[in-house]
Amino acid sequence: MPHLLLPFILVVVVLTLTPGPDMVLVLRNGSRGGSRAAWWTGLGCCAGIAVYAAASALGLAAVLAASATAFLVIKLLGAVYLVHLGVRALWHSRRASSAAAAAATATSPQAAVVRRWSAFRQGLVSNLLNPKIALIFLTLIPQFVSPGEPALLTTGILAATFLALAVLWWRVFSLAIGGLGRVLARERVRTAVERVSGVVLIGLGVRVALTANR
């Protein structure tokens, strides 16, 4: 595995940096609650990855991948959840816009808009309802397990590497959002992020629902 670790890391970096529902969700929560909300959303995403990593090691992810019905149910639930988050974002942007005068002075209370547990839960549920993460562990990781290696140990190391890179990325991303705090504190900017995020999340939800199971 040592000679395959660097290629594995490069593939994971590409997958992690590819924009998707997680990035939109973290950005949306970060625009409302700052670096802390973004960080806790990212941690929730990582927790979802950890669950699928453990399921993959135990063979449960293979059961999900083999069952078209289970895959379809989780996929549709994930699509509904993304649309739900998108609608909430649009609704919140409407309320925020109507209360712009009152919110203009709310710079420090901004972080309280998104509670840590709420941000964490959104990231966690978003990943748990994404069965394609299970497929990543089933199709990607085995490609980097050499014949003769202890499969369980090697899979565990690769899964831990995947998770560590995800945690590192969300930490960097959340700090970057914190660096944009003054910009995101502007009501007009925050409302725009809410609206764009809402539309994108709804679009992603529809796309997930219409995507073929395999």
UniProtKB/TrEMBL annotation:
The keyword Thylakoid does not apply. It is a multi-pass membrane protein. One of its GO terms (molecular function) is amino acid transmembrane transporter activity. Coiled coil: none annotated. The keyword Chloroplast does not apply. The chain crosses the membrane at residues 6-25, 37-55, 61-87, 124-145, 151-172. It holds the Pfam family LysE. It is found in: Cell membrane. Keywords: Cell membrane, Membrane, Transmembrane, Transmembrane helix. GO terms for cellular component: plasma membrane. PANTHER family: ARGININE EXPORTER PROTEIN ARGO, ARGININE EXPORTER PROTEIN ARGO-RELATED. This is LysE family translocator. It comes from Nakamurella flavida.
